[in-house]
């Protein structure tokens, strides 16, 4: 296991969750993002044993560990996050669970991996933390590290699917990082980054969308 005390968190213009790390899993549970949501994410990702998988913005590593179970001992799963507290907690949880998932400090706009490394990239509720230009850079980086024929499974906020949601989300139209989501523009970002066959493959509470995109 890497010595987190010697690591330096990379700088990013995206939001970095630090003090939330000890209560992050509880926060997710309180808003309905429990393991059922993570397993739904993996259902859409259709992971196979032996695949090389990257989880960008992995947080405390819940999804990363579940992905490692799917890829099995012949695969490799790495979680990346810009928050040292999140990565430290993810490593501790993985060690307790004897998970093969690995965790690295890193930012989506400068992923610490070579070209065409991964079969699958997962992005769960990460994109809305990025301002518009960083979304573009991050998606281009994800495209770079995917193998030809590889795929991205992203889940994040989207244009609300029920009129009542607009009562709560319309102020987000004035927030630079979220406006593209509320306007339903994420497929355009994916296409601009070089992905094809971009499609919505699922919804969650009529507010989050699961997108699949291929390289």
* CATH class group: Alpha Beta
> Helix fraction?
25-40%
What ranges have pLDDT less than 50 throughout 5 or more consecutive residues? none
Question: If you compute it from the alpha carbons, what radius of gyration comes out, rounded to the nearest whole angstrom?
Answer: 16 Å
Helix segment count? 8
Overall form:
globular
CATH superfamily: Vaccinia Virus protein VP39
Please list the strands of the largest sheet in the order they lie side by side: 3-2-1-4-5-7-6
Give the termini separation. Answer: 32 Å
Q: Could you please say which CATH topology applies here?
A: Rossmann fold
EC number: 2.1.1.103
GO molecular function, one term: phosphoethanolamine N-methyltransferase activity
Keywords: Methyltransferase, Transferase
Protein name: UbiE/COQ5 methyltransferase
Could you please describe the fold and organization of this structure?
Helix 2 (35-45) crosses helix 3. Helices cover 34% and strands 23% of the residues. It has helices at 24-30, 35-45, 62-71, 84-97, 132-145, 166-169, 176-182, 186-192; strands at 52-56, 76-81, 102-105, 118-124, 146-157, 196-204, 208-214. The protein has a seven-stranded mixed β-sheet, with helices on both faces. The protein is built from eight helices and seven strands; from the N terminus they run ααβαβαββαβαααββ. The model has no long low-confidence stretch (mean pLDDT 90). The chain starts with 23 loop residues before the first helix and ends with a strand. It has one domain (16-214): 3-Layer(aba) Sandwich (Rossmann fold). It has 215 residues and is α/β, with parallel strands linked by helices. Strand 2, helix 4 (84-97) and strand 3 form a beta-alpha-beta unit. The relative contact order is 0.15. One of its GO terms (biological process) is methylation. Keywords: Methyltransferase, Transferase. GO terms for molecular function: phosphoethanolamine N-methyltransferase activity.
């Amino acid at each position: 296991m890497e010595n987190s005390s010697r690591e330096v968190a990379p700088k990013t213009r995206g939001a970095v969750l630090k003090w939330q790390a000890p209560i992050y899993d509880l926060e997710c549970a309180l808003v309905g993002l429990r393991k059922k949501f993570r397993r739904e994410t993996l259902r859409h990702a259709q992971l196979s044993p032996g695949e090389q998988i990257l989880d960008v913005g992995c947080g405390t590593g819940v999804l990363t560990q579940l992905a490692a179970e799917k890829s099995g001992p012949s695969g490799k799963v790495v979680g990346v996050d810009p928050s040292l507290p999140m990565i430290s907690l993810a490593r501790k949880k993985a060690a307790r669970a004897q998970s093969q998932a690995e965790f690295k400090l890193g930012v989506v706009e400068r992923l610490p991996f070579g070209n065409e490394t991964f079969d699958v990239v997962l992005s769960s509720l990460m994109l809305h933390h990025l301002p518009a230009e960083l979304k573009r850079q991050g998606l281009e980086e994800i495209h770079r590290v995917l193998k030809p024929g590889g795929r991205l499974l992203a889940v994040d906020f989207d244009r609300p699917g029920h009129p009542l949601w607009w009562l709560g989300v319309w102020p987000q139209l004035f927030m630079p990082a979220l406006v593209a989501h509320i306007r339903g523009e994420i497929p355009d970002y994916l296409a601009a980054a070089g992905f094809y066959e971009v499609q919505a493959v699922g919804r969650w509470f009529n507010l989050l969308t699961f997108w699949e995109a291929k390289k």
